[in-house]
Amino acid sequence: MIGTTARSLLSVSLLAVLAGCASSSPTSGLTGAAPAATAQAEPTPVVQAFCPPVVMREETAIHRAYARGGQDNPEKLMYQASLADATRACTANETTITINVVAQGRIVAGPAVSAGQVNLPVLVEVVDGENVIYSQSVSFPVELPTAGTQFVFSKPDVQIPNAQGGASRFTRVRLGFDTGSKR
């Protein structure tokens, strides 16, 4: 009984399909069918871009803060901070690449520490070859306990131009601490 019903439904379905195929109108032979869409939706354009890697500035990846008048005196060291692993994520439109830069850091207390919040001067630069196309120093707050701690630095709004084909393959995001000296 089930086999006979299944064959009957298959036969009716096949006849309906064939009736539609033999007709000159795409909807003739089908009752109650809606007319076919006359225009297809435009595909959404895809914007692709090269997402520049993050590199650490070796000469400024470590920052030391000393008590007043104690520059380079180990007994007057308040803290030492360093940046280590970093990553990035990019979004792009036709004209702009927005880079979310994230880095892991560590801050260690020195002999002259006073626990509390410190502001680390993190420098974020985007360079294309030797040309600086973005540069911003960020005063990044970190809570410093008397022993030291790890922190995660994040700068989600670094924006650079998106040329046709994306940023140059020579473009890099450089991270370090702002030493105040000319680079």
- The CATH architecture of one domain comes to Sandwich
How would you describe the shape? elongated
What summary fits the major beta sheet? 4 strands, mixed
Class of one domain, according to the CATH hierarchy? Mainly Beta
Fill in the CATH topology of one domain: Immunoglobulin-like
Mean pLDDT level: 80
Structural class: mainly beta
What is the spatial order of strands in the main beta sheet?
A: 1-8-5-6
End-to-end distance, in Å?
87 Å
Q: Report the portion of residues in β strands.
A: over 45%
Provide the gyration radius in Å.
31 Å
How much helicity do the residues have?
10-25%
Uncertain parts: 1-33
- Total strand count, please? 8
Number of helices: 1
Q: What is the helix/strand order?
A: HEEEEEEEE
Protein name: PilZ domain-containing protein
Keywords: Signal
Organism: Pseudorhizobium flavum
Describe this structure as you would to a colleague.
This protein has 1 helix and 8 strands. The radius of gyration is 31 Å and the shape is elongated. Strand 3 and strand 4 (96-109) form a beta hairpin. It has a domain at 54-177: Immunoglobulin-like, CATH 2.60.40. The strands form 2 sheets. The protein has a 4-stranded mixed sheet with strand order 1-8-5-6, with no helix packed on it. A 4-stranded antiparallel sheet has the order 2-3-4-7, with no helix packed on it. Helices cover 11% and strands 46% of the residues. The model is unreliable at 1-33 (pLDDT under 50). It is mainly beta and 183 residues long. This is PilZ domain-containing protein. Keywords: Signal. Residues 1-24 form the signal peptide.
